[in-house]
Amino acid sequence: MSADLQERFYRDHYAKLVEGGASGRYHDLTHRLLERPYGPQHHFPCVLEVGAGGGEHFPFVRHSFDRYCLSDLRMPVNSHEDSRVSFVPADVQDLPFDDDSFNRLVSTCLLHHVNEPVRALEGMRRVVRPGGAISIMIASDPGLAYRTAQRISSGRQHSKAGFSEWRVLHAMEHRNHAASLHQLITWVFKNDYLTDRGFPLRPASWWNVNLLSTYQVRLRS
Fold first, then answer.
1. For the chain, how are helix, strand and coil distributed in percent, rounded to 5?
2. Whole-number Å distance between alpha carbons of 87 and 68
3. What is the C-alpha separation between 205 and 209, in angstroms, rounded?
4. Where in the chain are the domains?
5. What's the pTM?
6. Which of 22, 47, 63, 100 would give a disulfide with 42, using CB separation of 3.0 to 4.6 Å?
7. What is the pLDDT of residues 71-83, one digit of tens each?
8. pLDDT at residue 105 greater than cutoff 70
9. Topology of the domain covering 24-141+175-218
């Protein structure tokens, strides 16, 4: 039953949710905030994005690169026009890449969904080279600000589209608490250079009044 619900959501509703209305604007904001530290003056030869979906984050990448690998459990419907971009089916909890394979790793709104977030974070760190960068975004769920915004944006969109089970699906998928993820991220990268920022308020630890948090990591050489 849960698999059928997830399949129906991603097939019939997900694209509409991220492309328009208040939810679309929120998703665009998350991508822009995650890419804020890196502009055209930066270059990462090999980039891995985990939980990439259909490549929704890719258009917001501003830095240059030689190779960009999209990975997710689900294959995208369409192939990518950029020849530098490839897709590899992969579970972030068991990444099929050698150690130190990438210069940058990107994760957008993925850690809420995994069964073993520490294993996922340790895998991210393993495949990035010393001196490389890891960029992580998490929604501030179940914070008051996030849940309120959800009800008046994506919740309304789902209801209008006839997807009445959106609360059930959200409960299935967002299984990890923002406060717990914050502690796990800071612990896994405790020996690296880590900066975090909440939105709209600066401290990422203020998850109850923020909509999201971004984490930028530079691995120690």
1. 40, 25, 35
2. 9
3. 10
4. 24-141+175-218
5. 0.89
6. 63
7. 999 877 667 889 9
8. yes
9. Rossmann fold (3.40.50)
